[in-house]
Amino acid sequence: MKMLQKSIFISLLCASLSVSASDAEINEAIAAATKHYKAGELSQAIAQLDYASTLIRQEKGEQVKSAFPDAPSGWEADEASSEVAGAAMFGGGITASRVYYNDEQRIEMQLMMDSPMLQAFSMMLSNPSMIAMSGGKLTKIQGIQAVQKVDGDQLEIQFVTPGGAMITLSGDNAAQSTMLKLANAIDLKKL
Q: Taking the CB of the first residue and of the last residue of the chain, which one, N or C, has fewer CB atoms within 10 A?
């Protein structure tokens, strides 16, 4: 029971950390995992590896924020934010978002990556029949198949990058041209 509590504590700690880890912290966690593994302490080895992978995801989450484009002319943008879920929570992954706005409109750009949940989304987005049945319209973003869905006066654009990140832009339908401009300005190399 004590080991389970320690493992849960480490997982929760990893999920709540927001500061980038140093190489030393990551190397220490990997070394501790190796030590526990060799000693036959598999639960502790797993907890340390989960800790190390979460620290690496946090570092990647900080890097991913730089992929968001600057606000277009006449628009402003909040600072990009990112969150990391440890492997114990939904299989892990990174989410990041940034909000763009002007006096009349608002666009939110969200990114999800390194999550096992993305495989199902990828399959849906790559199936034109499913897209048509859901009322979506196909388009291209940076040469990648994307889906546009209109719901009343709201527009959503979704696509999965070659690196496996799912990007969703949502906002006012009247801001469609700005949404497309932002989507085409994402730095996919940073993902």
A: N
